[in-house]
Design goal:
The chain is mainly α. The protein folds into 4 domains: 51 residues, no CATH class; 106 residues; 104 residues; 65 residues, no CATH class. It contains 20 helices and 4 strands. The strands form 2 sheets. Strands 1-2 form a two-stranded antiparallel sheet. The chain has a two-stranded antiparallel ribbon with strand order 3-4. The chain is globular. The termini are far apart.
Length: 367
């Protein structure tokens, strides 16, 4: 392609190719040559992304003005060069500019960037259209759910989640799953926490009775761990001990490993169930926990699992529940070297920019 159009006219980034030409006819010839070149590698160009655009059309298609404004906003957010109110005002102006070309070109990328910045600045002007945007573009579900979680209270986010799941136009199985996963980053106590807990228990019951896919088992079990007390782990017992029906393997593993993390007594309960029921998924899980309990020191391959995660929407580190579960399983080990390492790990993690809610989760682990 460089031989065809010249080095100055050809730019490539990963699998994206941008080529400068003098006319539409030349652009079509270049597209044909690109197709032939890719065919030699048994590939085909993306028909949706393969376009011949004038400079004016490219400006609209790539939303160059809006992207420039958003680049400046992201720089101010990163350097904390402006107050939140000023950032929200500037973001609102950028959004109004972007709406002039709504639905054109790479509109989804613009929506994704603006939803992220609105979540960081806690701007609420997108909340009214969040559900319609999500239903129209399910690929934005993760970004929109992060925005709704960060720009409002946990009770508001729970209402949003229930509204999307119950919406008659919501037909995608992965969207409710993603919203349930996003609840694992919600931070609340009291009445709203109990509502999330009841919701998770209802999801588990649906998986148990075959009304939901078994993929929902893992986030539901982790929600019980996040928002429940130790006594609430008892709701997980039927998910790996029910002998009246054939249980999904994902449900067995998720419920058993979360229940076992409650302590040695709970792990012994899981171990007895594995011995009596001879369930393969449960037996493998027991062997995994026994191996963790035999560690004389924490291996490096296990340490890499216990790093704080970065949330691009809340713009801070958070305590991932799967990471916390791995730490809880490690806490079953009574070796002195392991206990000392776990304590120092928790103290180091507390120095990160974490919320008070996550600090309480860590405190529960160490205690």
């Amino acid at each position: 392609m460089v031989k065809l159009v010249g080095r100055e006219a050809y730019v490539r980034w990963m699998d994206d190719h941008v080529i400068g030409v003098n006319s539409e006819a030349q652009g079509l010839r270049v597209l044909a040559a690109m197709q032939d070149s890719l065919a030699s590698l048994y590939l085909t160009p993306n028909a949706k992304k393969s376009l011949v655009l004038s400079l004016a059309e490219a400006k609209i298609h790539f939303h160059l003005d809006t992207n420039a404004d958003l680049d400046g906003l992201e720089s101010k957010v990163a350097t904390r060069a402006a107050r939140r109110v000023a950032l929200v005002r500037e973001l609102t102006r950028a959004w109004r500019l972007a709406l002039q070309n709504e639905g054109k070109g790479q509109w989804e990328q613009i929506q994704s960037r603006i939803y992220r910045l609105a979540g960081i600045t806690k701007a609420r002007f997108l909340r009214r259209r969040a559900i319609s945007d999500l239903l129209q573009n399910p690929s934005l579900a993760e970004r929109i759910s992060g925005y709704m979680r960060c720009s409002g209270s946990a009770a508001e986010y729970l209402r949003f989640t229930n509204s999307v799941i119950a919406h008659r136009h919501q037909i995608h199985k992965d969207v409710p799953l993603l919203l349930l996963e996003s609840l694992l980053r919600a931070e609340t106590r009291g009445y709203t926490a109990r509502r999330i807990l009841r919701m998770a228990e209802g999801v588990l019951t649906d998986v148990l009775q075959g009304r939901r896919d078994e993929l929902f088992a893992a986030p539901a079990c982790l929600l019980i761990l996040r928002f429940g007390a130790r006594r609430d782990l008892s709701h997980l017992r039927p998910c790996f001990r029910d002998r009246r029906r054939t249980l999904p393997s994902r449900l067995i593993r998720a419920a058993a490993i979360v229940f076992a993390s409650g302590g040695r007594k709970e792990f012994s309960d899981v171990r007895r169930s594995a011995a009596s029921l001879l369930l393969n998924p449960l037996g493998l899980m027991v062997r995994l926990v026994l191996k963790i309990m035999r560690f004389t020191e924490v291996p490096d391959r296990y340490k890499v699992r216990l790093n704080a995660r970065w949330d691009p929407v809340s713009n801070k580190y958070y305590l991932d529940m799967r990471m916390l579960l791995a730490a809880r399983l490690l806490a079953l080990n009574r070796k002195k070297a392991v206990k000392l390492w776990l304590k120092s790990w928790a103290l180091k993690l507390r120095k990160e920019k974490m919320s008070a809610f996550d600090r309480r989760l860590l405190a529960r682990l160490i205690r």
